[in-house]
Amino acid sequence: MRISGPVFALLAVTIFSIQDAITKHVGQLYSPFLISMIRYWAFALFGVLLVMNTKGSFRQAIHTARPMLQIGRGLLLVVQILLSILSFAYVGLAQSQAIFVAAPLMVALLSIPILGEIIGWKRWMAIAVGMCGVLIIINPFDADFSNYTFLPVFCVFTLSLYNILTRLAGRTDPPQVSFFYTGVIGLVVTSCIGPFFWTDIPLADWVWLIALCLTGVSGHYCLIRALDLSEAVTVQTLSYLQLVYGLAYGYFIFNENLTMVMLLGSMLVVFAGVFTIWRDHRLKRAGKA
Prior knowledge:
Layout: H1 5-27, H2 32-52, H3 58-62, H4 67-90, H5 93-100, H6 103-115, H7 121-138, H8 150-169, H9 175-193, H10 203-229, H11 232-238, H12 241-252, H13 260-288
Helix pairs in contact: 1-4, 1-10, 1-12, 2-9, 2-10, 4-8, 4-9, 5-8, 5-12, 6-7, 6-8, 6-13, 7-13
C-alpha cells in the first residue's frame, strides 16, 4: 500500500512529539551536551547514508557552493537542540511547545532582512497577533515568572534563523547536501564537547537514548518523504498537531500545569501561524498563475 504525503507528515509530527517527550525525560538526568552528542551520532549516520544513496559520486553529493553558510546552519542547529533540551527540562514540555509554534511567524519576520521578502499588512497583523500570544504564554507579570521562560523564545529564534539559512542554501545546494553538512558539523562540534560530560549510563537509560536516536532518524525520514509527496503548506499546517501532543504529554505524563493563559496564548499563536502559512501559500500560487 502506497503511503500518501499527509500520512507521512502526520507520522513525522507524531514521532517528533515522542522524541520531545523522551528528550524531556533524559534532559532531567543528563547534560544537554551529552544528549546532543548521542543524537548527532545517529543523525550524522543517517545523513551519510542519505548522501550515499544519491546519484553521482560521493564528492559530487557533498559539494557545496556556500561552505560558510552550511557551517553556520550546522552550528545554529546545535545551539537550537541544546536550547530545546534545556527548555523542556527547566520550562516544561507544554509551555515550551506553546512557544515553539511561533516559529513560522519568526521565519516570516526574519525573511524580510535576510531573504529580501516583502510582507503585506495582513501578514504583519498576523505576526503581531502571534507575538501577543507568545507574550501571553510567557506572562512576565506572573508571580512564578522565571528567566528560564526565555529559553524557548531563544530556541524559536535560532530555529527560525536556521530555517531561513536553509532556504538560502537551497538556492544553490540540493537538500541532501544541506542535510549532510548539518549532521557532520553537529557531530564534530558535539563530539568535541560531549565527552567532557560523559557519565555512567544505566542500561535502562540507554534504551531511552537509543529510542531518542531512532525517533530522530525515523521522524526526519518521514518528513523528507512528506515534503517529496505533498506541498509544504500541508506539512506546515499538520505540524501544529505537535502542540496538541506536547500539551497532552506535559499534562498526563509529566504532571505539568496547563493554565487558561497558556491555552489562550497558544490559540492566538496557532491562528496567526496558520494564517501566515495559508497566506504565503496563496501568494506563491498566485505568482505561478
